[in-house]
Write a structure and sequence with these properties.
Length: 297
């Protein structure tokens, strides 16, 4: 489906990509992209999006047709044990694309590894401490080799409507696990979209940006603030050593760092709508009260 105006193609029309799509749609962009399962197609088509099926076992049926007219590309598809599925299945196709004004890859601050609570910025060495982080480093390099005007966005922990500590508190699944010295950075999904939009307006191919808010904080502090916000008692604090965590859950606690976002402020001119988790959670709660739908974007 070709468009006469700008067209964004998203590999992975998921949580973060849809937040950007909403902003760009309001500016006249046509939106296209991929989902993994057929059940997601009707709702996105109802929004006027051109939707295609794609995953590791199912390459795009017609790459040229799906990408026809694309001026901007975003990939939020995470690497798996085999590598980056988009690059592995369509890397050669990407090399042949023309007319792309901007491309973005959503990575993670996990590429920096554990820094013992110290600060990192985009010039810090990449030193992943997990297989998951190492796969991201490899994926970043793969996307940089496509020849596209590529921009890297290293995202901190994502939260927003439908995906935040208040959801876990209400469901009774939130836990206040405490590990002294543990610091995480996070980012509201709307601020991710704002950063991506600003980059589209100020392209700088080859540049990497840390996408996080202004205040790294211990995770239990955020849970307790969220509980107070919705008038609930917080879960009891549990020492990390005594917490029963899955191997995946435990792996997130092996790394502690403070992530600097000064480049996105300085170079992209972004002023975050939610500079800390306090503004972000309060806005989500206010939105719930206004529209009764905590999961809407």
């Amino acid at each position: 489906m070709k468009s006469n105006g700008p067209r964004l193609f998203c590999f992975g029309l998921g949580y973060s990509a849809l937040a950007l799509a909403g902003r760009l749609r309001a500016r006249g962009f046509a939106i296209a992209g991929t989902v993994r399962t057929p059940d997601k197609v009707p709702a996105l088509q109802a929004r006027g999006f051109d939707v295609h099926l794609f995953d590791r076992g199912r390459p795009l049926a017609d790459f040229a047709g799906a990408l026809a007219g694309a001026s901007h590309i975003l990939s939020s598809v995470p690497p798996d044990g085999g590598g980056d599925p988009v690059i592995d299945l369509h890397g050669d196709d990407l090399l042949l694309l023309g007319g792309i004004e901007w491309a973005g890859y959503l990575s993670t601050t996990g590429v920096y590894g554990d820094r013992g609570g110290n600060w990192v910025d985009e010039d810090s060495p990449l030193d992943p401490g997990t297989d998951r982080g190492a796969r991201r480093v490899a994926a970043e390099a793969a996307w940089a080799g496509t020849g596209l005007p590529e921009h890297l966005f290293r995202l901190a922990g994502i939260y927003g409507p439908g995906r935040n500590p208040m959801v876990g508190l209400r469901a009774g699944t939130a836990r206040c696990v405490v590990k002294p010295g543990q610091i995480f950075s996070r980012i509201h999904v709307d601020d991710i979209a704002a950063v991506l939009e600003a980059s589209i307006d100020r392209p700088a191919p080859g540049r990497a940006y840390n996408v996080c808010d202004d205040e790294p904080a211990p995770p239990w502090e955020v849970i307790e603030y969220a509980a107070a916000l919705i008038g609930m008692d917080p879960p009891p604090r549990v020492p990390f050593e005594a917490a029963e965590l899955s191997p995946m859950g435990r792996s997130f606690w092996t790394e502690s760092k403070r992530v600097s976002n000064q480049r996105l402020h300085r170079e992209l001119g972004v002023r975050l709508a939610y500079p800390t988790y306090r503004e972000g959670l309060a806005a989500i709660l206010a939105r719930e009260a206004g529209d009764g739908d905590p999961g809407s974007l």
